[in-house]
Design a protein that fits this description.
Structural class: mainly alpha
Number of helices: 15
Distance between the termini: 29 Å
Shape: globular
Largest sheet: none
Number of strands: 0
Radius of gyration: 20 Å
């Protein structure tokens, strides 16, 4: 295949790729976290605790982690477009079905299945872009995908909060499911088939060997643990801040709380700032600085002043995305061979951290207090800083 046939800026093929990859990110992350802002409503509906209701978020991320492990072995065995289309359409149908689930247990089980099928997108999206898009615009295409992820996560949370307040949580889930199905059908119709990829059999022994190597590499293991701890802390804050803001001394309405999720915009800034700083400073220095700012943002969440809390949340969000961007880059750069295996393990730790810490801290909040909850999160961020500091000898990666 002539490399000049790769999708270039200005071509119709590139426009379709860019649009559809944005839609895929929008759909996946709107569905993955749609229950997060509705946890107090669902908790009250099923007469359960914050920790139990948080399993609605954790179930999807556990499913995502299991799916990513599965697709680490099997993704290259399937057509890129067919796998991504299946993921988008089937996850949307599961979201629609979940609007009628009669019990919390069935909702959680559906969430695990939804997370599993939706992981097919994350498993192959970046690979598709690097294979099909001309090198000069790969960065632009990837930024569209990541923007879709961020905007999907943000808009899904805001829309879910507003719709749940107006029409009830079941109708909110149904509407987001229908919108996701429409996005999936548009993707199926417009997304170009692969020209530079043919499905192939998996070499299981090679994959296992690569994964074992990365899991016994202390540098990589520290990065994986940082991913788990920081993502777990991030999800914990966004899971339970709604409970905090609905309660005294804030007593905010659903409508006002919905716009707290606009803080996700700071995540985009965090990613952009990181890419600029990495040209001037060592990656590990940026990672340590980001973790320290995240610690500072978490500290501000102790406050009973809403403006201090909002500022703290903005700083916390910006710093998390900066740290995550840098840690994932360091993982990919350190892996000389088997980059897909290295990044698969990173995402596995990332989503397991989200699931385990994201739900575990809910039980801590229910049993103790917001103050104790924040102390636990500070401890997690503090451990992450210690781990980042231990990796100092392998900080900068010079580009010649």
């Amino acid at each position: 295949m002539n490399l000049s046939e790769k999708a270039e800026k200005g071509s119709q093929r590139f426009r379709y790729i860019k649009l559809c990859i944005f839609f895929s990110g929008l759909s996946v992350f709107a569905q993955l976290y749609l229950f997060q802002p509705m946890l107090p409503t669902v908790s009250e509906y099923f007469k359960t605790t914050a920790g139990d209701s948080s399993l609605l978020v954790s179930s999807s991320t556990i499913g995502m982690a299991i799916g990513l492990l599965f697709f680490a072995f099997k993704a290259d065995s399937y057509s890129r477009k067919k796998l991504m289309t299946f993921s988008l359409v089937s996850s949307a149908l599961l979201t629609i079905i979940s609007a009628w689930m009669p019990s919390l247990i069935l909702l959680i089980a559906t969430g695990v299945l939804k997370g599993f099928v939706v992981s097919g997108i994350s498993a192959v999206a970046l690979a598709y872009l690097t294979e099909e898009v001309h090198i000069s615009v790969v960065g632009l295409a990837i930024s569209m995908y990541l923007s879709g992820n961020t905007i999907g996560g943000m808009s899904g949370r805001i829309l879910a909060t507003i719709l749940a307040g107006e029409f009830g949580w079941r109708n909110a889930v149904l509407i987001i499911g229908i919108e996701s199905l429409i996005l999936g059908l548009v993707f199926w119709k417009l997304f170009p088939e692969s020209k530079f990829f043919n499905p192939q059999k998996t070499d299981y022994s090679l994959k296992v060997k690569q994964m074992r190597k990365f899991l016994t590499d202390s540098y990589m293991l520290r990065l994986y643990c940082i991913a788990a701890l920081l993502m777990g802390t991030f999800v914990s804050v966004y899971n339970y801040l709604t409970f905090r803001l609905e309660d005294q001394p804030f007593s905010l309405s659903h409508f006002v709380i919905a716009f707290i999720f606009l803080m996700y915009i700071f995540g985009v800034f965090g990613t952009m700032i990181t890419s600029r700083l990495s040209k001037r400073f060592s990656r590990n220095l940026i990672l340590k600085g980001s973790v320290l700012f995240m610690f500072a943002g978490t500290l501000l969440l102790f406050s009973e002043n809403i403006y201090v809390v909002i500022f703290g949340l903005g700083l916390f969000t910006l710093a998390f995305f900066a740290a995550h961007t840098m840690a994932s880059q360091m993982t990919a750069l350190h892996a000389k061979h088997g980059k897909s295996s290295a990044t698969s393990i990173y995402w596995l730790f990332y989503y397991f951290g989200s699931s385990i810490l994201g739900s575990g801290t809910g039980y801590i909040l229910h049993a103790f207090s917001w103050t104790f909850f924040i102390v636990v999160l500070l401890f997690s961020v503090g451990i992450s800083f210690v781990l980042a500091a231990r990796n100092r000898d392998l900080g900068a990666v010079k580009v010649h």
